[in-house]
Amino acid sequence: xxxxxxxxxxxxxxxxxxxxxxxxxxxxxxxxxxxxxxxxxxxxxxxxxxxxxxxxxxxxxxxxxxxxxxxxxxxxxxxxxxxxxxxxxxxxxxxxxxxxxxxxxxxxxxxxxxxxxx
Amino acid sequence: xxxxxxxxxxxxxxxxxxxxxxxxxxxxxxxxxxxxxxxxxxxxxxxxxxxxxxxxxxxxxxxxxxxxxxxxxxxxxxxxxxxxxxxxxxxxxxxxxxxxxxxxxxxxxxxxxxxxxxxxxxxxxxxxxx
Lengths: 118, 130
What we know:
Number of helices of chain A: 6
Order of helices and strands of chain B: HHHHHH
Helix content of chain B: over 70%
Number of strands of chain B: 0
Oligomer: heterodimer
Largest interface: A-B, 41 and 48 residues
Helix content of chain A: over 70%
Number of domains of chain A: 1
Strand content of chain B: under 5%
Strand content of chain A: under 5%
Distance between the termini of chain B: 34 Å
Order of helices and strands of chain A: HHHHHH
Number of strands of chain A: 0
Largest sheet of chain A: none
Structural class of chain B: mainly alpha
Shape of chain A: flat
Number of helices of chain B: 6
Largest sheet of chain B: none
């Protein structure tokens, strides 16, 4: 039970981190396009949502380490793949990306795989 | 360049699988049979094996970012998805984990899902400041 609770924390924190990071980085534009500089990189530190994404990633990593202390490696690594499924849904409805049927099919396969880990 | 990409892809896979393996090894060694207390977790986080695992995961993150600048995501996703299977193999061989057929099938399905996603276009709309 505690294992799935930790997986839920990891999946939620990773999803929040990735969605925030993707949203913010798209707003910034390509980091290495013409005119990119160290001051440009430093400006990233002034984006609160990007900082929040790093905090969420930290929470996810700590929860992953705790999960590894109570669960098998062969459970922990694939279980965290559940993020693919939730992130695909959020990419479609929050980031408004176009998600084609192949991506939905891929996410569905991942979801089935995670369900089999139970 | 082709060889460079393949060597880097191998580094990405190995750093991820070995990093996760060392985290698992270190955390279990510290926490086995102990009452889960915050201070013990902090000690475990800073044990040499776990720190080496974290270092490898930093190598993984940096090498993956570099690989992303050299190769398509549609190449990186399927190639690195083998990491799911290799993690299970490491668990079976070196951590004496008992892996059921159901779990093997689940792991392979996750890898298959990643492969299917990699056959899609990596970018579906124009980038740029919103």
